[in-house]
Design goal:
2 domains, six-stranded mixed beta sheet
């Protein structure tokens, strides 16, 4: 049962979530619209595709999109995604509190409340959850795996984490890492570990057979379209070691070397009552760190990659603090004061971020106008009404345009719609920042885009300097046909092939 104090806590949490939800009621990530297009095409009988007739898996969160599809048959797709995210964050908070005694043998109520306040004030977690992404769903799925582990339902935990692979591919490392550590620390015996591995591996094989039979590829196209490198890994690792928050892929307060060290202290000393559970929380957090360090800095310049792991990260952080304080003989009252002070700082930073970044003037600047898509919708709807239905549009911002304009989109930058371009990117290790790159010539001439839609500055970079005239891309001549105002400094320019 939830006591009176807990009811007050949850009232504050739900009120905060609802306020954030309403503040972003009309905001959706451009990336989210990529997934919404897949859902719409599937619902309309055109298959789980982005461009009708092209079976390319240009998303990494197919599990989230397929989950949304049944409800999207009756409700608007974007609103469905946003509503489910609110539900999953709320359920995650309730589940974590309800199972608090799994994680803490003493002072469980107090510590769990701090974890909930810290997690649900995380700007990155809330922003990407409420702009249509899979963030809240991923956090919920991972939490379910953690709770199944804590309650000894290890087969269920293995199958849930296999499913998580369809929502966030980097989660594939969680279970193998957990199983290896669990066997080495004798939390489970080798025979049990092998059985669980076969359950997990069998579930993954089932998923991969379905993926290959439909798309003809073992991995999403984004795996090839957005490669990393050892140089990027080293650079991000160095940024983490600086402890100054310069690694933007990781959310506050985890973008420093101190946090992982604290996590190690927490897992190997703080979860004495359930070592397998502690190892799972550690493995989840480690996956968030590993992906955030492996990947290039996200174009959003936020902790989007780390955000689904926020609950686990705060859980292990506070466990680590408790263990360190206990080792030094700090009284429980002093521990409470220190952790409450830390939580206050974290919550204050979260509220400050929300107040600052959600201000209309900041939401109009880059990258926020792509992260909320507000100014992109009107342009996309105009294109839907004023271009031929069979038009092909080359652009690098493909989500909102595809969903509202209902045109075939040619993603020349990342190749999310084109495996050939993704293959070229995998070789060159860099996306194509201009369609005039010589490597694109053959595929550009084959696709033969009718339009190019890009920012004014990029169009000028093609060699077009005036509002009259034309420019050439691989032997095709284009000239501006219409401009759309995005903000005070940026226009979208629709250029038509002559």
């Amino acid at each position: 049962m939830i006591n009176t104090k807990a009811k007050a806590v949850f009232s504050i949490i739900f009120a905060w979530l609802l306020c954030f939800f309403l503040a972003l009621s009309d905001a959706y990530m451009d990336d989210a619209y990529i997934g919404f297009t897949y859902i719409r095409n599937l619902a309309e009988g055109n298959g789980f595709v982005f461009n009708v007739g092209q079976r390319v898996e240009g998303v990494t969160n197919a599990g989230w999109l397929l989950f949304l599809t049944p409800a999207s048959l009756f409700l608007p797709i974007p609103a469905t995604a946003k509503a489910f995210s609110l539900v999953f964050l709320s359920i995650s908070a309730i589940l974590l509190y309800h199972n608090r005694n799994l994680f803490f043998s003493e002072d469980a109520d107090f510590r769990t409340v701090l974890i909930l306040f810290c997690s649900l004030s995380s700007f990155d977690l809330l922003y990407f959850s409420f702009t249509g992404m899979e963030t809240a769903f991923t956090a919920f799925v991972i939490l379910c795996a953690v709770l199944f582990t804590g309650r000894g339902n290890l087969n269920l935990a293995a199958m849930v984490l296999a499913f998580a692979f369809t929502v966030r591919p980097e989660t594939v490392i969680i279970f193998p890492l957990w199983a290896l550590m669990a066997v080495l620390t004798r939390s489970i015996n080798l025979k049990a570990g092998l059985k669980l591995f076969f359950v997990y591996f069998g579930s993954l094989c089932f998923i991969e057979i379905i993926r290959f039979s439909y798309f003809g590829c073992w991995l999403p196209n984004t795996f090839y379209a957005k490669p990393s490198s050892s140089g990027i890994f080293s650079q991000n690792l160095l940024a983490l070691a600086k402890c100054n928050g310069s690694l933007k892929n990781i959310s506050f307060p985890f973008s420093n070397l101190f946090a992982p060290l604290l996590a190690i202290a927490g897992v190997f000393s703080g979860f004495k009552q359930n070592r397998a559970l502690g190892l799972m929380v550690f493995s989840v957090t480690a996956a968030g760190y590993a992906f955030s360090i492996y990947a290039k800095e996200d174009w959003t310049m936020t902790g989007r990659y780390f955000s689904p792991y926020t609950f686990a990260a705060f859980l292990i952080m506070f466990t680590g603090f408790s263990e360190v304080f206990s080792r030094f003989g700090m009284a429980l009252r002093r521990q409470r004061l220190f952790m409450a002070g830390l939580a206050t700082i974290v919550v204050f930073v979260g509220i400050l971020n929300a107040w600052f970044w959600l201000k209309p003037e900041n939401q109009q600047s880059y990258p926020w106008y792509v992260m909320n898509s507000r100014p992109l919708k009107e342009a996309s709807r105009w294109i839907e009404k004023n271009t031929p239905p069979d038009s092909i549009i080359a652009t690098r911002r493909i989500g909102c345009l595809s969903f509202f304009a209902r045109r075939r989109i040619f993603d020349y930058k990342f190749g999310l719609t084109e495996p050939e371009i993704a293959g070229l990117i995998k070789t060159s290790k860099e996306p194509f920042n201009t369609p005039q790159n010589p490597m694109l010539k053959e595929i550009w001439q084959k696709v033969n885009p009718d339009y190019i839609l890009e920012d004014t500055g990029l169009i000028h970079g093609f060699g077009f300097k005036q509002h009259r005239g034309s420019f050439e891309v691989h032997g095709k001549s284009y000239s501006p046909a219409h401009e759309f105002k995005i903000n005070e400094n940026t226009n979208w320019v629709l250029c038509q092939q002559k």
